[in-house]
Each structure stands twice: as structure tokens, then as C-alpha cells.
Amino acid sequence: MNNVRYSEEAIARVIAERMGEESTALDLSRLDLHVLPESLSELAHLTELDLSDNQLTSLPQSLGNLTHLTKLDVSNNRLTALPESLGNLTGLDALTARGNMLTGLPESLGRLVNLNWLSLEHNRLTALPESLGGLTHLTRLNLYGNLLTSLPESLKGRFAS
């Protein structure tokens, strides 16, 4: 991890440097980012966004404007919550949020109807929203290393061991 702390303007420059005109993927991992600029939400054509291995404590609600995303990785940050607006990302196939400090999940994740992969291991989750049971395409659910004592009824038949 580097010791550089980027300003919002510097982050915007990094985004511009890493985004080609035709590019649909953006890798902002391992930059020691503490905040994300609102301008990130203007990259509506993005299909993949990697924000892993930073120092993010929250994600902007505007992230929900990236409705073409199919893959989002926010692993290994300092997140305690995910924004409700992530429920707008109905094309999302994979959401990876392992290694954070999440204590709960928004009900809106139940709207991610195309989600196939949900990786939430090594957080502080004590419960999951019942709405996750409506994710009929979900085939991989990783919950290892949380504080869960049970699964919602809507998931028990599919993922209980």
C-alpha cells in the first residue's frame, strides 16, 4: 500500500488516465483511496469497477447510477454499510465485498435480479435481508467469517449446509 493520499481532483485525474475512450472497465484498486469523486457516477458506460484494497469508509449513493455495471469489487476497504442505491444495478452479475466491516446489508440488494456471485466473507454481518431469497440467479454465496447464526428462511433451502 502506498502512502499517497489523493485529493478528489487527483482521483479524477487518475480515473481519466485509466479510462480509455472505448474502455468499459476501471481498476482503482490499491490506490489508498479514502473518498470517491462524484464524477465517477458520470461513467455510465462502465461494466466493471474494481475499488478493492483501498481505505474507503463509505460509497457514494451516486454509484447506483452506474446501471451498466456487471461486476463490482469493493473488497478490503473499511466499509460499514453499502448504499441503498446499489439496488439500482440490476445488471450486476458479481458483487464482491469481502474483508470490510459490514454489519448489515440494504434490502435493495434483493433487486439485483441478475446477481450470480455474492461474496461477503470476513465482515461483521449478524443477519441478512430476507430479500436476498428473491435472487433466483444467485449460485455462489460466500459468507464465511461473519457473525451469522442463521440464514433467512428464503435462503435456507438453497444455501444451508
Automatic annotation (TrEMBL):
InterPro entries: Leu-rich_rpt (IPR001611), Leu-rich_rpt_4 (IPR025875), Leu-rich_rpt_typical-subtyp (IPR003591), LRR_dom_sf (IPR032675), LRR_domain-containing (IPR050216). The keyword Oxidoreductase does not apply. It comes from the Bacteria. One of its GO terms (cellular component) is cytoplasm. Keywords: Leucine-rich repeat, Repeat. PANTHER family: PTHR48051, RAS SUPPRESSOR PROTEIN 1. This is Uncharacterized protein. It comes from Planobispora longispora.
